[in-house]
Design a protein that fits this description.
two-stranded antiparallel sheet, 279 residues, elongated, 11 strands, 3-stranded antiparallel sheet, alpha+beta
Length: 279
């Protein structure tokens, strides 16, 4: 049988079916529907849901919800989650703090444990610009930076730990982390620095080691990462048992520089807690 005999003629569309197709909606109505949907979900997911989560978190765990801030006598001194520098102005031969381009020249404060190096810009431990150095391991710049950190670490700690060698310096005392904001240092790093801090604060090494242990956290979930020592909490604990001013006097005597020191609040442009030194 031929194809023309097998094809069935198409029946004309019923007028009832044609009339059942709805006419297109006006463009203005479509735009209004879309705008209302955007507004509704903006209010629901952009306002109501965040406020709900914030309210629950403030009630359930207020410390974590507020960045685990640390206050001393009502003054904000830092966060458990963000590292910071502990520095003191460099005193010149004239007994006055040195300046460079109108800013004081700072150096690590020897009476405090020092944090891990930071590569954030424009200054270290900038929580608004968390970043790493982005330099390859075989870069000459990386080599120079690492060597500078090694020299600084030895200059700061070897006088109080004469047996310290380059091979014993922990990696976290030389390199910066991926965030540049690590609030912790390794136990090995803290153990080396404990000799300096104990000597300058006139404390038994065993007592400083006990504080290091107290502020050492375990691995995350029991298996992730390595144990770490929270530097800010440890330094604040030291201040509670040993006067920073008296300790600064010991450090100044060791350096033959007469200074007077007080721990002060971080400046508005930095999370660095350092001592104000006057000649």
């Amino acid at each position: 049988m031929s194809a023309e005999h097998t094809q069935r003629p198409r029946r004309p569309r019923s007028s009832a079916l044609v009339s059942a197709v709805p006419p297109p909606r006006p463009l203005r109505r479509e735009l209004m529907t879309a705008a209302l949907a955007v507004l509704m979900f903006t209010i629901l997911l952009g306002v109501a849901y965040p406020l709900l989560i914030e309210g629950v978190s403030q009630v359930a765990f207020p410390s974590s919800a507020n960045g685990q801030q640390i206050h001393v006598k009502g003054r904000l001194v830092g966060s458990k989650l963000i590292g910071q520098a502990f520095e003191t102005p460099v005193i010149g031969s004239d007994g006055r703090p040195e300046e460079k381009e109108g800013k004081p020249v700072l150096e690590p404060d020897p009476i405090y444990f020092q944090s891990r190096p930071s590569a954030t810009e424009p200054g270290p431990y900038n929580a608004a610009a968390s970043a790493f150095s982005n330099l390859p391991p075989n870069s000459t710049i990386t080599k120079e930076v690492d060597e500078a950190h090694i020299r600084e670490y030895l200059a700061l700690n070897k006088p109080y730990d004469p047996g310290l060698t380059v091979g014993e310096i922990p990696i976290d005392a030389v390199t910066s982390s991926a965030s540049g904001l690590d609030p912790q240092i390794s136990i090995a790093n803290a153990d080396i620095q404990a000799h300096r801090v104990a000597a300058l604060r006139h404390l038994p090494l065993a007592r400083v080691d006990a504080l290091v242990g107290k502020y050492t956290s375990s691995r995350g979930l029991g298996f992730s990462g390595e144990p770490g020592v929270n530097v800010l909490e440890l330094n604040l604990a030291l201040n509670r048992i040993s006067s920073p001013a008296a300790s600064a006097g010991a450090a100044a005597a060791a350096a033959a520089v007469p200074v007077r020191s007080n721990l002060r609040a971080p400046t508005s442009h930095s999370s660095t807690a350092h001592r104000e030194v006057e000649g």
